[in-house]
Amino acid sequence: MKKEKTDVQKIVIDSGEAFNKLKECKLVLTDDNLYPLYKDKLPECFVIPAGEKSKTLDSAKEILNEMAYRGIKRSDCVGAFGGGVVGDLLGFAASIYMRGIRWINVPTSLLAMADSSIGGKTAVNLGDIKNAIGTFHLSETYIETSFLDTLPEAEYESGMGEIIKTSCLDPTLFDMMQAGADIKQLISRCVTIKNNICDNDFMDKGVRRCLNIGHTVGHAIELVTGLKHGVCVTIGLKLETLMMRERISEPFFYELQVRLSRFIKDVDFPDVEKITEIAMHDKKNDSCIDVIFPVDVGKYEEVTLSKEEFAQRLKNI
Ligand SMILES: NC(=O)c1ccc[n+]([C@@H]2O[C@H](COP(=O)([O-])OP(=O)(O)OC[C@H]3O[C@@H](n4cnc5c(N)ncnc54)[C@H](O)[C@@H]3O)[C@@H](O)[C@H]2O)c1
Q: Whose CA is nearest to atom 4 of ligand 1?
């Protein structure tokens, strides 16, 4: 049976309500970087180690056990206070606990504000396979841009990776970045763009796939190098546009390379064989490798490459 999006996602920016909303939750998940910084304002939290290593089925099971232990009912609500890892994990647990309960997402990283807290995708990793297990379950999202004041610079740069990605899909955002719009304006535009795309294709069968530009190579780089997600998206965008260069408009290509180069620092050229092998096994690919890449501002293409052609194009860069 085809599942359709029936709800509109509630997304609020800088309303000052985030902590009060979390106080309504029967369980709030955060990580051990954030908890010491915000514990005076947060309710008692369930705290996980920070970072991608926590995005596992084992962590989800611990959270589900805690929900059951606290006697959380179908009508109750749970909350996430953190970056994309905390949001993806808590959202996943909320989506399967009693077949789905309400959840509030308070994103604290730039990446989570501009991207991962929108559109209802939840996930945990399965060994080496990123986001292999997941669901679609919308949160109510309360963005407070003041949380960026404590975000480390490297995480900020990672978030910029997803913003640059989104700007390739939208001429308005592309121009806003050129004109030096402030971060709150950029986040707000990213939220509008992603929300519109997800409204039109909640289950990721069509147009939503455009959000995967830079991700075929980016996910593989993330696995090989352990670099941050958004940084790998910038590297993925760079390599995919170089691989497919003959299909890409020249002015767009040059402007994009300039923007990306500000955020890509001292990265060794990746091992082509390893990247190809991982891209083959990425959940989005079968026997061939699908690459979705931008060709001009607001335009993208999807190609299916054989393993050999993918590797050859990567080698030819
Ligand atoms: N669901 C989606 O649609 C979607 C989209 C894109 C990415 N993602 C996922 O998001 C994850 C990456 O998210 P992320 O970059 O936010 O990673 P993250 O959640 O690991 O956060 C990055 C680091 O920043 C710290 N941090 C976050 N906010 C802070 C703040 N305000 N002050 C101080 N420290 C802060 C965290 O403790 C963590 O150490 C990946 O797992 C990726 O797969 C999901």
A: 116
